[in-house]
Each structure stands twice: as structure tokens, then as C-alpha cells.
Amino acid sequence: MNAYIVGGYRSAIGKAPRGAFRFTRPDDIAAVVIKHLLNDFPQIEKTRIDEVVVGNAFPEAESGFNMGRMLSLMSMGNVEVPGSTVNRYCASGIESIAIASAKISAGIADIIVAGGAESMSMISMGGWRQVPNPEIAMNNPRWYLSMGLTSEMVAREYKISREELDIFGAKSVDKALAAIEAGKFKDEIVPITVKENYFDDGKVKSREYIMDTDEGPRKGTTVESLSRLRPAFAADGTSTAGNSSQMSDGAGFVLVVSEKILKEYNLTPIARLVDYQVAGVEPYKMGVGPMAAIPKVLKHAGMKLNDMDLIELNEAFATQSLAVIKELGINTDILNVNGGAIALGHPLGATGAKLTVQILNELKKRNKKYGMVTMCIGTGQGAAGIYELL
Amino acid sequence: MTRRINKVAVLGSGVMGSGIACHFANIGLEVLLVDIVPRELNDMEKKKGLTLNDKSVRNRIVNDALTAALKSKPSPIYKQSFASRITTGNFDDDLPKIKDFDWVIEVVVERLDIKQAVFENVEKFRKKGSLITTNTSGISIEAMTEGRSEDFQKHFCGTHFFNPPRYLQLFEIIPSTKTAPEVINFLGEYAGKFLGKTTVHAKDTPAFIANRVGTFSIMELFNNVKELGLTIPEIDKLTGPVIGRAKSATFRTADVVGLDTLVHVADNIRETTKDESKDVFKIPDYLQKMLDNKWLGSKTQQGFFKKVVEDGKKKFLTLDFNTMEYVETPRPNFPVFEKTKGIDDLRERMRILMADKGKAGDFYRASFYSLFQFVSNRIPEISDELYKVDDGLNAGFGWKLGPFQTWDAIGVESTVKAMESAGKKAANWVYDMLKAGATSFYKVENGKKMFYNVPTKSYLEIPGQDEILSLEVLRETNIIWKNTDTTIVDLGDGVLNIEFHTKMNTIGAGVLEGLNKAIDLAEADYKALVISNDGEHFSAGANVGMIFMLAVEQEWEELNFAVQMFQKTTMRLRYSSIPVIAAPHGMALGGGCEVCLHSDKVIAHAETYMGLVEFGVGLIPGGGGTKEFALRLSDELKDGDIRTNAFTNRFLTIGQAKVSTSAYEAFDLGFLRHGVDEVIVSRAHQLAYAKKVALNMAEKGYSKPAPRNDIKILGREALGLVYVGADGMALGNYMSEHDKLIAEKLGTVIAGGDISQNLTEVSEQYLLDIERKTFVELCMQKKTLERMQSLITKGQILRN
Description:
- The complex is a heterodimer.
- Helix content of chain A is 33%, strand content 23%.
- Chain A has 12 helices and 13 strands.
- In chain A, strands 1, 2, 3, 4, 5, 6 and 9 form a 7-stranded mixed sheet that branches. Chain A has a 4-stranded mixed sheet with strand order 10-13-12-11, sandwiched between helices.
- Chain B folds into 5 domains: 7-201, NAD(P)-binding Rossmann-like Domain (Rossmann fold, 3-Layer(aba) Sandwich), CATH 3.40.50; 205-332, N-(1-d-carboxylethyl)-l-norvaline Dehydrogenase, domain 2; 334-466, N-(1-d-carboxylethyl)-l-norvaline Dehydrogenase, domain 2 (Orthogonal Bundle), CATH 1.10.1040; 467-613 and 659-705, Alpha-Beta Complex (2-enoyl-CoA Hydratase, Chain A, domain 1); 616-657 and 707-800, no CATH class.
């Protein structure tokens, strides 16, 4: 039994913590995207939807209360559709799509809304109350190593220079700006009306505006301008705010259906998740995760790296991106063709879904077949999913 | 009716204006700061499509100036958030607002016509009876009020803040002939008590008091430097801390102030005075050349000094006056310094230096004899009372001894004779004074400081002493007990004060003995105890030398005993049957901070720099400081709070050895307690106020507090954070492996040890025991010893 993606959208990605979505909750962003997605399928009765699965890296505070369930209540207009929240940190957004595909393939579900949502403006990296296990902290403190430092570990181990990182960062921005300029994301972004009440000059004021363009890429970014930034994570480090992924707010969702539903409603399939694998690596250099996940998924799918037409490698850090590229010999011509997380942002749990939406659209535009979405994951994992455009 | 100041408007936002506005915000007032509207848009404004009607454009000059001031270091404001007390505006739109302001301070450019135009405008809007002052360093006060109303003139006065207004103590008050006496008195009292300044009432004479004398002293050196045959570093060495002046001494200070500024003041004095010293204010050739070359000092990167980088090393070259080239000069030294080394009493040092037979002595005699001649001749021209001259130099130039105080120290009569043989002559009134049998300019009588009053030829009390308590005066008569490190004096009304007087007021066995003795005495026969001193700093911490010796000799038992003694003493500060008030100022670090942490109440001077900085010597606070942080963490937590975050804050404050840049910041860092501890702006009033508070506490009924055994600790809940955090900091090279070890141990003590159940309630003694055990363990570490050794031998913090 096959599972098919029949539609997908994302929000524009806001900068955290002071961007357009600074006061907009992740559940509110996500609900708008889901409703917009379902609007394309008026013929499907909402009560027939089996589930909403949302990926989220820090499911607490504004992302708490089982956000998946909240989203089903907020977007379905009924109480019958259930919802769940999954957490695989930065792969959460593709993990949810994998769960949806697997459930449908197993025949235990027919229609699932799957994706991810994250507000880094509202919930800080690591969550609000961090309580590491003291035994682990004493014996294996690096299982908890902060993401920035894992980046430095990768840079040290793979001997990647600051200059290489800044070149990579500047290139990401160039590609992203060109993509936005060319209107490449227009069709996939759901415009979201943002309402804010705020206090200014002694008065309460309100404003309303439409957020429909990614905020991340900074015009005028050059290798030289990036070279002036100070190390962000280590006194003598190489990773900076300019060659690491941005903190972001946003959401992305796809609709996954069974063959039965496809026929019943006469839907056109866009793509299918061919395979998805997650692999574990040393937590202190979690950035190398894709080095393990990519070969694993290719082997399992019986494919080769050369079979891929496009690859979205999440740019958590330029360090780990470059290490993965070098180690696996990835063809950079097909990699992150519209820029990556350094430029466009990385809304943790939403990223997997956002990249899925992006790669499917780009494959379609290029009339290509296979695309891979891959990322490293905190505490030492890597995920990789292969999509086939139908 | 009592005059109240609630709202202050500062006109002009230059360096002085912004600094003055910040200082009024420091003391809690509502401040309006205004400046002119810019004439044209800048590029950024054009890009944004703004016009000259937009408020952000109209207030750009004032906003930019205030922003720059707030960013400058040292900060003009006690705490950044205090800046919200300042509203900005511009002359065109916002001047009408002054209609309900109590005080308008003009700080625009030093040009009479512009100042007059501003005052004409001010008069249109000000409310009757409000104060108007001009902050000027030279323009005639009298001339400024021409054409103004009677009410304006009565309430108008000149003032002179010194830059930077927050830090420099001096506040000169220069009335015009029409200024109402009420206004003059009010300004004097207000500036003293509210703004924390030393006020000096000056006459409307060129450059007033402090700048007239201070500039004389500098210009005299500038004009004689070639003949003296001394190098720049030599003169700076001779005119620095050894004679009780700033480390930057003469030439370095000139570079920092800017030669153009100095010359401007000197020119003004020369052009407007006609006395015998006029020539001293001439600009010597080499100085003129420096001005022509724009070698103005720090702001042009070169003046008397020039910083160069050679082989990656920074070094300072100095100007050779003959060749006008920057050269390397050998480290200065004079044989007489061997004799003054180790002598802490400045007056004693002055006697040795003036009597020196070498080059240094020649220098001192030449320059001080000129200075004495000059200042004695300026009485009564610039001031009727001689103490104002000393006050001005003490507070405005940071001279620990002013001219007359120095003269007293080395002997008035003998100096007058020596001056004669050196071709200098004291003013006639000095001879008259000596003839009448008065041998010094100052004396202490009946617990009051007296000065020789020239017009009446008699000693008079220095005014304003009723409201203040001076340890210097009290020491003459009220000593109850003393040892080599401390002195206990009776402040009167049943309150004792104990002062430390060790080097940097560090705390060793002698201080601990003194503290215990003071508590013993107070419990037996008095009502309360104040801990304060009049040294440069309250206390730089525990005496590391003593700990180091015990550690090197591996006398662990004895070391444990010594730390226990420290803990017992700080605990006694809290657990005694009398109220104990700490009144710190300046640095209150390490052990000095722990003394404050354990007092019943702290009355801190606004300029108090508190911190638990033991990390720097490889230790954790061992005098109860770590325990106290665990206790305060417990007390500040409410149900449902994110405990781990509060824990991290406390942990990092010690772990990063944070030091407050003001007493207000010490609240944010958790060294001072809201609702308990207090801040006072006036250093002069601090001790009297602390005494009053101590008495009040005693009057209200004070009993020894019951011991605490309800301190909630986090235990294992916090340990994970400690170990992960320390590991990450070390991995990121923010700290060394040894720092990591100290951090782990520190965190474990604040967490209350490896206890499985969080929020277990423990006693203070339990925490003190683990604190002490950890302290001694760290002393066993070689790297901790190296750190202590570095501080002791080199005065440097080693990060090994």
C-alpha cells in the first residue's frame, strides 16, 4: 500500500525573536497553514481525516498542551479528528510525514495532516526548565553539549576554516535572495495576517499586516561582512551568527492520503516518501548525523546518491554542512539550490516539513524525480528522507 | 516653605549636559534633556523618507548625545534602566514644558550671547521661584542675567560640575550679586546631600577655585619642565600616587583631558587676571608646537605620550621636549622612594619627600614652594576661607592633600623660611598668622575640624559638620579599642564603629579579632555596631597571603580552623544581640562582600563595587558567601518558579566573579536585598545615616535571630546543570580545566550537595560545613596555589 502526498504549504519564515511572528503563537501560525491546505480539498469531509501530526522540538509553553490536538480542534471545525505531537528535535517536521506515510502504508489510516511548527521567539532553545540527569552530566556531559559547541567540535575534527564557513554562509544568502527575487516560494507560502497590540509612546496601538515573505536573508551580506562577526559559541571558535542557522518561527504541513482516498476523490498525487531513515552518531558532534543517515537511507532504498536530483541539507551550521558535503562527496550544484537555513532560517520542529514543501516544488519546476531532505539532530542523530515526484 | 526638586530640565546635551542629566536620573528624578533641532537631514533620515518635521529628526541631536553618553565607560548612570527617567526633547518644541519644572540647568556652549538668548527663552516659560543655573567653567555669572527679571535674577546661580558628573566629587557654586541667599544655601545643601557632591562656594573669579589652582599647578610644571631636566615619566612618577594624586599624574592626565582644553582654560586665566603668577599661564614653545601639530593627547592618538605597537607588543613612547620626537624612556626611579616605600601615611611621606637631598627633593621643593606662594596670594581673591581651596583640589582634582593641607603636613613655619631662601614668598597673612602663634592652617578641637580664618585671624569651625560624622575627627578622641588592623571608635549615642586599616583593607586574623571584639563590646555596653572606614575602598577581600602560607605548608587543620574562624565571625555579625550595619563604599570584594552579606543591614554608598571574586584565586567564597547565596536562592523562590534558572543566576554571579558597577547593580546581582539594604548617594553623610539606622533598629527592639534550618536546596535537580555547564564552558575555551573543577565544586555547594530529594530543608551550619570543606579541598590544588601566588607576587589574576 502506498501513501501519497497530495498537497503541501508552509508559512513564510519569521526571524526570532524580533521578527514578524514575534507575538504570533506557533499554534496560530500552524492552524492557518492547515486550513489553507485543506481548502484545496473541499470535497474531503473533515471528519474523515484520521489525524493531525505536528512535529515540534520544544513542546511546552505556547507549544504545549499537545499542540497536535489543539491544531485538530483549531482547524477542523469538529472535535472528532485527533491530534498528536512528535518530537525528534530538528527532524520532527519530516518525522511526522514519515509517521503519516507509515500509518497509511500499514493500512491503519487514510488521511493525515502532517508537518511541523515552531516558535523560537516564544520558546527558547533548550526549553524553559533544563534539568539534565546528574549521573549523565558527570560521566557523559557531552551528551548534553550545546548545539553551538557541537558545531565547533565538527570544525575542529574536520579542520574547516573560518573562511570556508563564511563563504558557505554568504553563498546561502545569495541563493536565497535570488530565489525570493524570482518568486520561487510564492506558491508554497500561505500569507498570514499578523495582528499586534503594542505599547508605544504612552499609548496602546494596534497594527495588522500580512506576512508572506521569508525574513531571513540579509541584503548586502558578503564574505567580508561575515568575517567581521565574533565567534558565538566558543572563545576561539569559528561559528558565528552569520555562518550558523537563524532562529526562526514558522510552520509547514502536507496532506498524506492512501491509494483508496486518491481514487475515491480523484486526487492527483504529487509525491511519495520513498524511504526515511534515522541514524545515531556521537552526540558531541551531532552535526555529522547526515553522514550516517544518508548512506543508511540510500542502502535501504536500494538507491545511490547519484540518483538524487535535488538535496535539501539543513544548514544547522556551515561547519557540519561542509563536513557532510566533503565526506559524502555531495554535488553542490543540486544542494540547497534556493539557499538554506543560514539564510532562510531554521524553525527547528517545522524545518523537515518546510524543506519537504520546498523540494517538491523545486523538483516540479525542474521536472525532476528524486529529492532528498536530510538534517542533523541534537544529541547525535541524523535523518534522511527520499521523495519521489509522481 | 521647603524647596523641593522633583523635575529637572537640562538644556544642552553635550558631554557635560548628558552627564548631568544622567546624574539627576541616578538620584531618581524626572529629567528633561533638550538640545537644538538639526538644520538638515542626514543620509539615513533621507533614506527613510523622513522630514524635518518628524520627531525622531527633531530630537536626533539630543538622542544621539544621550545614547553615546549611556554607552560611554565608565558609565554615567548607576544602572542602565535608570535612563528611562530621562525624557528627551528639543528647544523649539519642548521648552514650554519647563513651566512645571523645579530647576532648569543650562549647559549650552560657553558663549555669553548664546547663553543669554537661551535665558531669554527660559524666562518666557519658567515658573516663578524655580531655580535656573548655568554650568560654566569660566564665563562671568553676573553678565548672564542682564536684562532678566528680578525673580529670574534672584533664583539664578552659577554652578560648576566637573566631568564626569557622576564620578567627580566637586560642585562649585558661584552666585551673582543678585542671587538670593536662600538659593545659595539650598544649592549647597542639595548638591551635598542629594547629589553626593563636595560643594565649594566660590567667587565669580576666572576659572573659580579648583581650575585656577589646578591649572596653575600643571602650567607651572609645563613651563619649568625643560629646566628641571626631568623626563615625562619621571615627573608623572613624582606627581602620582606617591604624593596622593591620581596614577595618571600630570602628563597622562593632560593627555586624557586634551591639551586644547587645558590651554583654553589657561588662556582664559591669563587674559582675565593680573596677578604675580600671570606668566605661569603662558603657553611654552613646545606646547604651542604640539597644538600646531594637533598632538592633543588621547583624542588625537598622541600628546605627551604616543602608543605604538612593536612586535605585537604595546608600548608608550614619550615626547622629548628638545627634539620634539617620541622616544623610549627608561623606567623612572628615585632613591628617596626607597625611604617612602611601606609608609602608608601620606603626610609622613610628604615630609620625607620634601626633605630629600636629591633630584626628587629639588623638584618637590621648587614646585610646592611656587604652589604655596600662589595659593596664599589667592586668599581672599578667590576665596575668603582657605579650606575651600583644599576642598576644591581634593574633590575636583583628586589630590588627597590640597595645598594648605600639604603645607600643614610639612610644617608651616619651617616652610615659610625655606621658601624665602628659595626666592619665594608666602602671602603676608601667613606671616601674621605665625606671628599670632597659630602654627597650622587646620586643627581639631572638641571633635570639630577648625580652619584658620584669615579675615578674623582666628580659628573657625568648618561648616556642615553637624550632619556628618568623620572618622578622621572621631579618632582624635573617641577610640575605644584598637589593634594593628582595626580601630573601634564610639560614634556617640551608644553606637560603635569598627574600621579596618590594613592594606586595601584586606581581612586577616587582626580584622577578625577586631570584629569579634567590636561585637563583644557592643553586646556588653552599647546598642549597635557600624562597620565602615574612610580608606579608598571598604575592603578588597580576605588576606590571600595568609591562606597561601597555610596551604603551602599543608597545614590543613590550621587552614580549616582559620576558615572556620572567618565563618564564625561573619555569622556573628548576623547572630549577635545587637544590630550590625555595614556601610561599604568603593570595592567590597570577596571577604569584604561577605562581611556585608552577613550584616543585618547594608547602607551602601552609591559607588560601591561588590562582588564575590574568589574564582580568580582558584577558590570559592569561604567566609559564608557561598552559603549565603544558597540561602538567598531559597528565600527568593516562590512556588512554581523555575528553580533551575534562579539557581543558574546565583551560580554564575560567583562563577563569573561578577562585580557591580554601582550599589544599585548590587541589588540585581543579589548582593544587596530589596526592602532591607539601602543606598545613599552622599559619601559624607553615609556614616551619620548608618548610625541613625543602627540606632533605629536598636530602638525598635532588636534580638538575636534564631538560627535558620529551613533553607531549601535543589540538590541533584541542579547538579546536572552544573556539570554540563562547566563542561561546555571549558570546551568552548571560556574557562580552563581548573575553572571547570572550581565551577563544579561551587555549584555543588550552592545546590546543597548530592541530595536526592530537591527542596530538602537544611541548616546554615550544614551549608557552611560543605562550603568550608570545599574551600580547603581547593587549597590543596596546585593550580589554586599558583593563582594565589600570582595575585600575591604580581598583583595579577592568573587563569591557569
